[in-house]
Backbone:
């Protein structure tokens, strides 16, 4: 067999394999034998039917099987003789088989890029010092109380961050927004909807969320707002709207007492043992934040100092996964299908950007793993299986059972484990300088 290679891009190759007629005939003979041995023909025992009858009855199946065998043979030959590190197969053309003649087959592959790495040992990173103060512990205790708080109805004006039940009707001029943008009900008319008063990051109508602060049950109020010019709902972009609101109910957050019953829920006996447990939890979280900070800085260094062309098949697969995850999350948060359609272009652009970042980082780290001879152990794989089982709330045996059905999934999981292990290797080799931790405001939300 002979091969010829043409560059489509630096990382995509068109490869043509010429297969001599003698090898085609040998593969064809093997296919005939397989069909003769296993075909069931009325009036004949297995393996005894005439070949002419086999050819006539199974002509299409025989041709398809011969093509598969020749493609497999050509693929293996490319892997052995091309000198290329194949990443994925994009296309395999079926050959035109002519009896007694040589045949050619053309494949299109993405190949692993040639990656020139920067000096990756001793990357300078700044990491926050891990210190846990009484203020940190108190904030975490407040957050835990908030998780178990009761929301009690009160007859007073709503304060910021309290939950309220409100109705509102939106208009632009004299026209109802629900008629202007019928597919985006959130911005039109809502009855008895719950809002978090004054919340900056709350989904919904900003003027309503901010306007309910200070309103008592039974109060009415009209607020105004102008939608941004690039607002996601085209019918409302740049328009000035008014909202007529009516407050129905205010709920006050009542935190549980720090008593034995509360401590028992966290397997603590008293306030001292509870505080110690909280301190350990905050310490572990800050250590994780420290490690994540190192990883992010190292990833940024690799991204800024490594340049190579990406296999588009890898980018496309990653992009589709990002889109699926993002769209599922938006649908779970109640974003209407029509709004997704309106944002489609932005979603695709963002998914493409993230996919390219992810693939670039993954390939660079796998190249480092290759150069450093980093390998994963059975313990590494089992730890990943346990982690996946915990996240999905299933047994590790179920994860193993799923892996046994798809070797491709197993290979992808192993690459993921190797990437993380390589990133941890770079963290260990980094030149770390500690910096004072920046204080962050801690909110105790219900």
Residues:
């Amino acid at each position: 067999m002979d091969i010829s290679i043409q560059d489509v891009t630096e990382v995509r190759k068109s490869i043509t394999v010429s297969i001599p007629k003698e090898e085609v005939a040998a593969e064809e003979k093997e296919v005939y034998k397989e069909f003769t041995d296993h075909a069931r023909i009325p009036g004949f025992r297995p393996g005894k039917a005439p070949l002419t009858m086999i050819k006539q009855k199974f002509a299409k199946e025989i041709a398809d099987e011969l093509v598969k065998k020749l493609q497999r043979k050509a693929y293996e030959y490319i892997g052995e003789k091309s000198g290329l590190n194949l990443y994925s197969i994009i296309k395999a053309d079926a050959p035109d088989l002519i009896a007694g003649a040589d045949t050619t087959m053309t494949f299109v592959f993405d190949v692993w890029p040639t990656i020139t790495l920067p000096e990756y040992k001793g990357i300078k990173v700044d990491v926050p010092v891990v210190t846990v103060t009484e203020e940190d512990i108190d904030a975490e205790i407040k957050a835990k109380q908030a998780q178990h708080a009761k929301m009690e109805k009160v007859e007073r004006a709503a304060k910021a961050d309290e939950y309220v039940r409100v109705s509102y009707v939106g208009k632009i001029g004299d026209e109802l927004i629900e008629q202007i943008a019928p597919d985006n009900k959130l911005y039109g008319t809502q009855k008895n909807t719950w809002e978090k008063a004054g919340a900056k990051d709350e989904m919904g109508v900003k003027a309503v969320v901010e306007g309910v602060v200070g309103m008592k049950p039974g109060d009415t109020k009209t607020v105004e707002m102008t939608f941004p010019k690039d607002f996601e709902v085209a019918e409302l972009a740049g328009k000035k709207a008014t909202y007529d609101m009516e407050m129905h109910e205010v709920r006050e957050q009542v935190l549980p007492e720090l008593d034995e019953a509360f401590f028992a829920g966290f397997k603590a006996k008293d306030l001292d043992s509870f505080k110690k447990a909280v301190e350990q939890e905050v310490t572990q979280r800050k250590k994780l934040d420290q490690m994540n900070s190192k990883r992010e800085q190292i990833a940024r260094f690799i991204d800024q100092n490594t340049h190579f062309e990406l296999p588009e098949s890898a980018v496309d697969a990653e992009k589709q996964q990002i889109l699926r995850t993002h769209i599922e999350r938006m649908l779970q948060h109640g974003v209407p299908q029509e709004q997704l359609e309106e944002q489609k272009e932005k979603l695709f652009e963002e998914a493409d950007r993230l996919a390219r970042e992810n693939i670039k980082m993954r390939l660079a780290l796998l190249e480092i793993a290759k150069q450093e001879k980093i390998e994963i152990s059975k313990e590494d794989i089992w730890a990943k299986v346990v982690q996946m089982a915990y996240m999905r709330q299933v047994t590790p045996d179920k994860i193993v059972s799923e892996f046994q059905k798809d070797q491709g999934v197993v290979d992808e999981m192993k690459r993921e484990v190797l990437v993380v292990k390589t990133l941890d290797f770079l963290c260990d080799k980094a030149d770390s300088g500690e910096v004072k931790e920046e204080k962050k405001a801690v909110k105790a939300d219900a």
